[in-house]
Amino acid sequence: MSTTPRVISADQSTFVQRTKNFVGAVFFLLVQKSPKLLALHRNEKAWALFRVALGCFGAALVLLPLALWSGYFTALFGLALFVLSILLPAAELESGTDRKARELGAQTVISGGEYRPVNQVARSVQLFVSPSHSWALDKNFDPMVAIATAEIKSLRVEPSKEDWVLHVWWGEHKAEFVYRGIFAERFARLAEESLRRASAAAKPSPMSRSARA
Fold it and tell me: What residue spans define the domains of the chain?
């Protein structure tokens, strides 16, 4: 048996990485809307069992007798499930993001796309949203910008060529977050929704204002 390692070309590597990133983005969107899926992802044994079961079910569909024409579609569906079981991210018990969110008191963590400070290189960031402040942190959890959540005056998402941009105005300040890729608009609107919800919760209600008066 040959022991020569298989070499993946740059194009193949890029395709594989893009496919994994695509699956990861889809999974992230699902997790945002499904707390039960998030809980399953945090349980290492349950998540491993789910991936194995998904892979076995997909393989079984591929190996079923293809007596009927519809069987080909069943086989393709099974193959898709089998590949998905391989591409799904591993279980994550507690990440650095979880610890940082707890430290900051953030209730929501969402992709912030790319943030470009004045006279600096653009960096990929995550938005840690809390009722008091919302932080854009880079991959090393260094703060790029801190937004006073209760002072947010306006939020707007709009297309820019092939990208989508989230504009945030608060006090006398403004920040722009650029989203790229197939889910750019979806991520931008999720961030907008999270910030809008947190800002509304942070501002005193009209009834509380009248009570103080």
Answer: 10-87, 96-202
Check whether 68 has a pLDDT greater than 70. Answer: no
Report if pTM > 0.85. no
CB proximity list for 198: less than 8 A, separation 6 or greater: 107, 108, 129, 130, 131, 134, 149
CATH number of 96-202: 2.30.29.30
* β-pair partners for 160: 163
User: Residue 213: beta bridge partners?
Assistant: none
Q: What is the pLDDT of residues 124-163, one digit of tens each?
A: 999 999 989 999 999 899 999 999 999 999 999 999 888 9
pLDDT tens-digit map of 97-124: 888 888 898 888 888 899 987 777 888 9
How distant is the alpha carbon of residue 175 from its chain centre? Answer: 20
Which of 71-75, 115-119, 190-194 shows the lowest per-residue confidence on average (mean pLDDT)?
A: 71-75
- DSSP code string of the chain: ---PPPPPPHHHHHHHHHHHHHHHHHHHHHHHH-HHHHHHHH-HHHHHHHHHHHHHHHHHHHHS---STHHHHHHHHHHHHHHHHHHSPPP-SS-HHHHHHHHHT-SEEEEEEEE--TTS--EEEEEEE-SSEEEEE-TT--EEEEEEGGGEEEEEEEEETTEEEEEEEETTEEEEEEE-STTHHHHHHHHHHHHHHHHHHHSPPHHHHHHH-
Task: Using alpha carbons, select from 192, 162, 204 the residue that is nearest to residue 180.
Answer: 162
